[in-house]
Amino acid sequence: MAEHLTQKGITKEKAERITRLSITELEQKLQSGELSAVEVCECYQAVALEVDRKLNCVVEPIWEAEEMALERDQKTGKKGPLHGMPVSIKENYYIKGYDCTAGMQRCIGDPVSEDAVVVKVLKRQGAVPFVRTNVPQTMMTFECSNPIYGRTLNPQDTNRGPGGSSGGEGALIAAGGSILGIGTDIGGSIRIPANMCGICGLKPTAGRISGAGTHKLTKGQTLVKSASGMLSRDVDGVTMAMRALLCQYMFDLDPTVPPIPFREEIYQDKKPLRIGYYLDDGYIPSVPSMHRAVEKAKSILESQGHKLIPMQPVDARRMFRLFLDTVGADGTKTYLTCMTVYEYWNHALDIEDYKDDTLALWRSLGIDAVICPGFAFPAIPHNTFGDLVGGCVYSTMYNLLNYPAGVLPVTKVTEQDIKDMANYPNKTKFEKNIKKMMLGGTVGLPCGVQCVALPYQEELVIRLMKEVEQGLNGDNS
C-alpha cells in the first residue's frame, strides 16, 4: 500500500495538510468538492500506515476503501452527511469478507458474510470505512494486546497502553491517523481510551445505536449491555456521527433500535442546568490530576450559568460487585455455574434496586446531568491491568446504570499533581498500586472529564461536552 500511495502522489506534506484539518473543515471541503473523497482517503491511508508502524494500532486496511471513495466522487445529486469522510472501525464490527476475531485465534479464517448495521449506515451516509483497529483479546480489559495482532502502544507514551477495548481506535485517532472511529463500550471501552489518549468518546445508552453485527462474547447476558458509540479528535466529530447514524435507514435495518432521531433542540438548548459533580466515587480514589480536571470543567460550566451541586454516587463498591458478577472476565462461565436461577433472579433485582436508588438520588438533588473523572487515573504501563483494574469503577457505573456518558480531554498531569500524590491514600492494594503507577513518569499524560445524563439523553451529554470544550479554548494543559 505504501508504494501505491507514493505512486498516487501522496507526499508527506500533502497527507499532513489534509489530515490536520478539523472534522468540520474536512466536511466543508468534501461537501463543496474542494477535496475529493479519493485524495482524502489516500491521505488518511498514508498517515494511518505511518502511525501503525510506530503504535501497531491498525489490524488491516479495508481494501475496498479507495473504490468506495471513487464512488462517492462520482455520485451525482445530494451528498450524504458523511460524504467522503474516512472512518476507522473497531475490529469487532462485522465487515463483509473480513474475519472478526476479537483477538481470538479460533476466529481466524472465518470471514463474515455481511456488514454490521452501523457499517451499512455509515456507507449509506457517504462515509468511507478505511481501516480496522486493534482490540485486546476478548475485549474485557483496558489494555490492548492479543496473540493475533500484538500490542498497541499509546501515542502519548509508548511505554503505556492506549486503554481498551477500543484501544486501536484511541491510539490511531490521537496520533492523527483517523478523524472519526466507531467502537463499543461495555465497561468503559470507548471512554477509557478517550481518557488515556486525550480524545473524545461517547458511550450512548445501549441500544440507541445498533449493535447488530458485532462480535458477541457474552451472548445471552442481558443485564449489562454493550453500547455502540464513537471516538473523535473533538466533540464535533462525535456530534456529526450521532446525527448521521440516527437515521431512518438504521431504524429500518434494526427494528430493536428506538426510532429517535438526533434532537437538535436538546443539543442547541441554552437553558441553565443543575449539574451534579464528584471528584471521587467514595471507593477507589481518583488522582489529583483527575480532581483538577473536574474542577476545571466545573468552573467552565459555572461561568456559563449552570448550577453545580456536589454529590456522591450511590455506593460504588456495591455497583462494582454487581458489575463484576454480571460481566466476568471469563465470560460469566464460573458465575453461571455457581448460581441457581433463583440467585440469578435476585442478582437482577439487586441491579434494578441500584438503578432505582441512583435515579432517586438524581431526583432528590434535582440534577439534569453529572460531571466526574473520566477515569481514576491516566494511561497505565503495559501489563499492569491486573494491579489497577479497580480504576474502571468510574466507567462501569454508567454501563450498569445504562446512562449515556462521554469523555473529553481537559488537562494533563503536572509536576504539582505528582507532588500532591503525597496526600493520596495508601492503605488498600489498589491505592498503593495507583500511587506507584502515578509516580512512575506520568507528567504530561492527558486527563479527561466524564459527562453523564439520564438514558436516551445523548444530546444533553454532547451539549455539555461541547460547552466544556469551548470553555477550554484549546487549553487542555
Automatic annotation (TrEMBL):
Any Pfam family from its record, for instance, is Amidase
Recorded hits in Gene3D superfamilies, A to Z, give: Amidase signature (AS) domain
Which SUPFAM superfamilies does the UniProt entry name for this protein? Amidase signature (AS) enzymes (SSF75304)
Q: Which domain of life is it from?
A: Eukaryota
Reaction catalysis annotation: (9Z)-octadecenamide + H2O = (9Z)-octadecenoate + NH4(+); N-(5Z,8Z,11Z,14Z-eicosatetraenoyl)-ethanolamine + H2O = ethanolamine + (5Z,8Z,11Z,14Z)-eicosatetraenoate; N-(5Z,8Z,11Z,14Z)-eicosatetraenoyl-glycine + H2O = (5Z,8Z,11Z,14Z)-eicosatetraenoate + glycine; N-docosanoyl-ethanolamine + H2O = docosanoate + ethanolamine
Keyword set, alphabetical order: Hydrolase, Lipid degradation, Lipid metabolism, Phosphoprotein
What the entry lists under InterPro entries is as follows: Amidase_CS, Amidase_dom, AS_sf, Endocannabinoid_amidase
Q: What general EC class does the enzyme of this chain belong to?
A: hydrolase
What's the name of the protein?
fatty acid amide hydrolase
Tell me the organism. Answer: Magallana gigas
Q: What is the lineage of its organism?
A: Eukaryota, Metazoa, Spiralia, Lophotrochozoa, Mollusca
